[in-house]
Design brief:
The chain has 446 residues and is an alpha/beta fold. It has 3 domains: 125 residues, Rossmann fold (3-Layer(aba) Sandwich); 61 residues, no CATH class; 236 residues, Hypothetical protein af1432 (Orthogonal Bundle), CATH 1.10.3210.10. 49% of the residues lie in helices and 9% in strands. Helix 9 packs across helix 11 and helix 12 packs across helix 17. The model has no long low-confidence stretch (mean pLDDT 81). The structure holds fe (ii) ion (2 copies). One fe (ii) ion binds next to helix 11.
Length: 446
């Protein structure tokens, strides 16, 4: 691993431990940080992040090494975090491993083993960064400058071949060649995913530019964007789970919905509502509709923050991924008590998935999701909260959720107009009648 720097946190460093690591046989090439300011600035520095952390000895401040490891873990899930000390009295290896450290070593006892382990884990972390991530070919536009490498995978040779290099413009005929060969996935190095996310967010903005693309293409791109956004929440490749990627997902989500909303005449609240009414009941269109309705309701009622409610609406049912379809399709009365329990966990699972995916969002977004099945009369789930304890964000998501269910045009289902849907909701004890009344006033009578 010559030339690969590893950062050592040097606050309250035990000099003996540091000297051992950086000298003698098999020394480790370290970049050390001496002050907490330096430490914060490198943790926050954009780019590739460190290959690993070594914390030498107890810290001066009140922060315990395990507390530091836990907070580093939140941001660097896969990065080795190693604790090294010469103080035998404080050495509790199991305790450290339980609390966020990859491993912990006592010097000089563990000396050579320590160096070997550090070299190995750095090698692994380095390889992980060089790994490839599949992206959809449809997300790449022709004749635009790409700030990331694109590779294709040759399964027969088990090899990636670079197709276009960062800084190149991928011309239409070269892109078409891939389409002709029915290539649907193309690969970007994991450490260039940030550039890819920036690029795709930019492309999403183009959807809003009149004349940039046909209405059909725009719709297709929006549908793909929602599908990518939602399926992207379930990635198992933890190397792509970064705060940066989480931020991009949040802004993509807001971008998608604002594109959807802006599609109709400005200021035409009712027009925007009717335009959102869907005709398919899959998760993706439900998520997009609830997100759009909820933000429009929030704008109309002038309650809650529409930009937060958008996110709650988009991800409210993520946790359904853990509920078997046959349980989802049953009505409330048909579910056994065990199925009911399983179903009622979905709001909490949604929040859990978002946390795992490092989506840093205001607490109102989380409560909007967590409480979207609470009812105004206190008979909902999971907590049976009474109306005055349900956040406004959750009440608005719940209204949008039901509104989408009622107005959706589906074969074999009676068509319900927006006004009728709201009239029905007005007499339902699940909702705050004051909010529903306000929405009814805003709907023109047909
Ligand atoms: Fe739900
Ligand atoms: Fe829902």
């Amino acid at each position: 691993m010559a030339g690969k720097k590893i950062k050592i946190l040097m606050i309250a460093l035990e000099e003996q431990a540091q000297a051992f690591l950086t000298s003698g046989s098999n020394p480790i090439d370290v970049e050390s940080v001496k002050t907490s300011d330096d430490f914060i600035s490198f943790v926050d520095s954009p780019g590739h992040g460190p290959y690993g952390f070594i914390i030498c000895g107890p810290l001066i401040s009140d922060l315990k090494p395990t507390e530091l490891a836990q907070s580093l873990r939140m941001q660097f899930m896969q990065t080795p975090i190693i604790y090294v000390t010469t103080k035998r009295e404080q050495f509790e290896r199991q305790e450290y491993i339980k609390n966020g450290f990859t491993d912990s070593f006592l010097i000089p006892l563990d000396g050579e083993l320590l160096k070997k382990t550090i070299h190995e884990s750095l090698e692994l972390a380095y390889k992980a960064k060089k790994a490839m991530r599949a992206v959809k070919l449809i997300d790449i536009g022709a004749n635009s400058k790409l700030e990331f490498d694109l590779s294709i995978y040759l399964p027969a040779n088990k090899k990636y071949i670079k197709y276009s290099a960062a800084g190149d413009v991928l011309e239409a005929d070269r892109l078409d060649k891939l389409k002709e060969k029915k290539v649907s996935n193309i690969f970007v190095p994991v450490d260039q995913m940030k550039q890819f996310y920036e690029y795709s967010a930019h492309r999403l903005k183009e959807l809003n530019t009149p004349g940039k693309m046909s209405e059909t293409e725009r719709k297709e791109r929006l549908e793909t964007a929602v599908r990518d956004l939602i399926t992207g929440m379930f990635v198992t490749d933890s190397s792509t789970v970064t705060i940066e990627a989480g931020k991009m997902m949040v802004s993509d989500c807001q971008e998608i919905v604002s594109t959807f909303i802006n599609a109709s005449a400005p200021g035409d609240w009712y027009g925007k509502i009717t335009k959102t009414i869907g005709s398919t009941s899959d998760t993706y269109s439900h998520s997009l509709s609830v997100s759009t309705f909820a933000s429009l309701f929030s704008l109309g009622l002038q309650m809650g923050k529409p930009e937060d409610i958008v996110i709650a609406g988009m991800f409210h049912d993520l946790g359904m991924a853990d509920v078997p379809v046959e349980v989802q399709n049953k009505s409330e009365s048909e579910r056994s008590s065990q199925e009911k329990k399983l179903y009622e966990m979905h709001p909490e699972i949604s929040v859990k998935i978002m946390k795992e995916r490092k989506l840093i969002v205001p607490p109102t977004v989380m409560s909007g999701i967590l409480q979207h099945h609470e009812k105004f009369d206190g008979t909902g789930f999971p907590k049976q909260l009474p109306g005055n304890r349900i956040t406004i964000e959750a009440q608005i998501v719940a209204l949008a959720d039901r509104f989408d269910y009622l107005t959706r045009e589906e074969p074999g289902k009676k068509k319900v107009f927006p006004q009728q849907a709201l009239e029905q909701m007005l007499t339902d004890p699940a909702f705050n009648p004051e909010l529903v009344k306000k929405l009814i006033i805003m709907m023109p009578k047909s």
